Amino acid sequence: MRVSKRESATDKVSDEGTEKTVKDDAVHLRRNIGLLPSISFIIGTVVGSGIFIAPKGVLMNSGSVGLSLLVWALCGVLSTFGALCYAELGTSFRKSGSDYTYLLETLGPLTAFLRLWSELIFIRPAVATYVSLAFGQYVVEPLFMPCAAPTALVKLVSMLGVMFVVAMNCWSVSMAARLQVLLTFIKMFALILIIIPGIMALVNGKTENFRNIFDTDSLSLTKLPLAFYSGLYAYGGWSYLNFVTEEVINPNRTIPLAIIFSMVVVTVFYVLVNVAYYTMMTANELLMSDAVAVTFAGRALQVVAPGIPVLVALSCLGALNGGFFGVPRMLLVGAREGQLPAILSMIHIHRQTPLPAVLCLYPLVIIVMVRGEIFQLINFASFSRWLFIALATLGMIIHRYRFPDHPRPFKVPLAVAVIFTIVCFFIVGLSLYSDPWNTGGSFALTLSGIPVYYLTVKKSYIPKRWEKTFNYLSLHLQIFLEVAQQEVQTY
Questions:
Q1: What is the per-residue pLDDT across 176-215, written as a single tens digit (0 to 9) for each?
Q2: How far apart are CA 151 and CA 122, in angstroms?
Q3: Which of the four CATH numbers 1.10.287.40, 3.40.50.1820, 1.20.1740.10, 1.10.3210.10 does domain 31-484 have?
Q4: How far apart are CA 283 and CA 280, in angstroms?
Q5: Least confident of 16-30, 189-203, 385-399
Q6: What is the spatial distance between Cα 394 and Cα 107, in angstroms, rounded to a whole number?
Q7: What is the mean pLDDT of residues 261-289?
Q8: pTM of the model
Q9: Where are the domains of the chain?
């Protein structure tokens, strides 16, 4: 029996429609992050609590106003170099997971596991605690001024902020993305609100705070890396789009464009914000302030000063949301590669969110939040974070040499990659001398992942009874959470 061309074409369209419907109904993370959400994701994650808290840490460790401004500019340039390297990595390796994936592809599974281990055990809990405490501080402190805000209340509000962000990322990917876009516009408005009166005062002749700005009497070379740590922390987040590569529309174009535009904008804004701070405050006044933006608003924006803490708190919330949006994808990829429990690689069957990976971070953040001094948290987390960033870009250089024909839709100049890698290793090495207690503890916790890798991942030495119990609990947790393995390959 002959089948007409029209019938054949109709059957083909019908099959394609059925296949599309099946794919739409399948459990997987959707590729629906365009250019604007990508830019908002980077800027919204970078611009958080750092620019409102880190100026104190940068000035404290640099020793002068001029050198602190130079540190801010150099941190912006260095972060842009690193972001360009990650643009190449993100377009060369199309999996989500950021530097975990890149280390896995270039330096092997052990290095990748240590990255995963350190992120789960202390980097993400420390960073999320830092941002959430800043959120709580800016929400609570205006209610008690001029007195100090109760520490317990600050931590309670911080926990509520974390709970809100976790709930949002468990509920809907698109809702979390829209929240990120909204909060990004709010926080950029907050920065503009700080920059304009500061620059206007500077133009009108208020320059007394910029006299002898390179006074080197307080300069200590051993503390200078800690100044860079504070500054680089404020720029941290430029790699977070790489956590969600599998959900980005046309990543070969979107990732480089979003990264370049975002980093140029953030660097310019950060330097101008610090110029505005120093225009209205002396160095000593800035060092004495626990909430720099609030102190600034009291001087320069008396009419809208009560609203500044709200804008800063929303800025912190945006950074917190970006972290909880991106990092669970690293855990998901790690579980998918067999380096974490399989339950963490599962996705909610209705909401299409990485529910288990998001939820597992919450208790860790709460534990760290109970105790921990805010600047110690920066130094503690920054050491391992920058160590692995340096290793990822080193791996990129090695991969270029070993596999010159590997497709690289975006290729960063080799000099940029080499400079960035050397500077990162230098800062990481010098910080061991400058702050041996925190950075040494961070290094020790990172290395503690080596026996865990060989005992549980490389070759499992877990007793069969324990393994059977864990699998039983995982199965019931899977049923309770309504999650399943990804059904569509997205890379």
A1: 888 888 888 888 888 888 888 888 888 888 888 787 777 7
A2: 22
A3: 1.20.1740.10
A4: 10
A5: 16-30
A6: 9
A7: 88
A8: 0.85
A9: 31-484
Over residues 69-82, the mean pLDDT reads 92
* Greatest mean pLDDT range, 212-216, 296-300, 362-366: 362-366
